Amino acid sequence: MSLGPLMIDLDGQTLSHEERELLQHPLVGGVILFTRNYASPTQISALIAEIHSLREHHLLIAVDHEGGRVQRFRDQFVHLPACAKLGELYDRNSRQALTLAQQMGWLLAAELRAAGVDFSFAPVLDLGRGISSVIADRALHANPEIVAELAYAMMVGMREAGMMAVGKHFPGHGAVAADSHVAVPVDERRLVDLQFEDLLPFERMIRYGLAAIMPAHVIYPQVDSQPAGFSARWLQNILRKHLEFNGVIFSDDLSMAGAAVIGDPLTRAQQALRAGCDMVLICNDRTAAIQVIENLGEHKSPTSQIRLMRLRGKAALDWEGLHASEKWVQASCALEFLTTNN
To answer: Which of these is catalytic: 57, 79, 91, 181?
Structure first.
């Protein structure tokens, strides 16, 4: 069975009978994990192994694990600093900041891979303009060139640990105050303004080989009337054709308020897929997930299949072996220093 275009979530730390059935549906291709799904490295590894046992071609396992306030697994995981800490250090010592960014990317990915997670939705490529409270210290820096440098270093570290990177939130969420989780943000800037600012980190990272991108639930009316993640102009014309991006496009969570302007959950999923998403996320709304699964109909895209398969995590150390390694000790100590001395 191939990977379907839907990524859904789970209620708890073990699979229910309903979830087992949902995860075996051909439209489902991945699972996103949250804090509620995590108790310990042993437990999360067992949960992922159980998920994998349901399908011959393993479902993709993802998590939002950036550092700072967005880190779903904490107990026994290294507490990663907010990415803005790297940007602050860059202003004082760019070489040290880039070294730590690579170590952070490696450590983030190595611990997740040891637990069985394929990838994290990271790094954030939005600019830290001091406008968006939902982005805030999740952003690496306000300068797009510096964001690109630090994000590339993180991506290199993630690859070393066997994980591909996912850049978000295309084409940039940092210039709007509204939070797309609870509102519909509108960015009035022209495309030419975005090209020289917010789009630059995405353009650079695509050239560096970025494997996946998540668009923002933000409307840019000077470009299109639809939020970026539902816009064929943004995803097919600008991202695919102009920026020559050939990786996976994930929607942001279709249950967020920023997606509500499109219609009901089924309409949102249909529109996101038509616009150019390879996989859409439906989180924290089981009723919506079931509605889409039952009504979306057959959806096959050989090109999307090839892209998605590339996101499978590579071979990794087990949990004990990783934490006994000298590289883990060095990286964890370096990041602890960054957290406490910056």
So the answer is: 181
* Residue 323: how many other CB atoms lie within 10 Å: 17
The mean pLDDT value of the chain amounts to 95
Number of other residues whose CB lies within 10 A of the CB of residue 2: 15
Nearest residue to 284 via CA among 42, 53, 60, 10: 10
In whole angstroms, what is the distance from residue 286 CA to residue 327 CA?
Answer: 41
Tokens 């920026």 belong to 243
Question: What is the C-alpha separation between 178 and 175, in angstroms, rounded?
Answer: 9
CA–CA distance from 220 to each of 83, 181, 229 (Å)? 26, 17, 11
Q: b or e along 218-244 (b: 16 or more beta carbons within 10 Å of the residue's beta carbon)? A: bbbeebbebbbbbbebbbeebbeeebe
Q: What is the pLDDT of residues 273-317, one digit of tens each?
A: 999 999 999 999 999 999 999 999 988 888 999 999 999 999 899
- Catalytic site residue 181? yes
Residue 173 bears catalytic tag: no
Percentage above 90 pLDDT, the chain: 88
DSSP 249: E
Q: Domains of the chain (ranges plus CATH)?
A: 6-341 (3.20.20.300)
Map tokens 């073990």 to a residue: 14
Q: Report the SS3 class of residue 247.
A: coil
Place of tokens 């892209």: 307
> What are the φ and ψ backbone dihedral angles of 168, each rounded to 5 degrees?
-150, 155
Which of 126, 252, 253, 278 is catalytic? The answer is 252
- Looking at residue 20, its pLDDT comes to 97
Task: Tell me the H-state helices in the chain.
Answer: 17-23, 41-52, 84-92, 94-115, 144-160, 191-195, 199-207, 232, 265-275, 286-295, 302-309, 319-323, 326-341
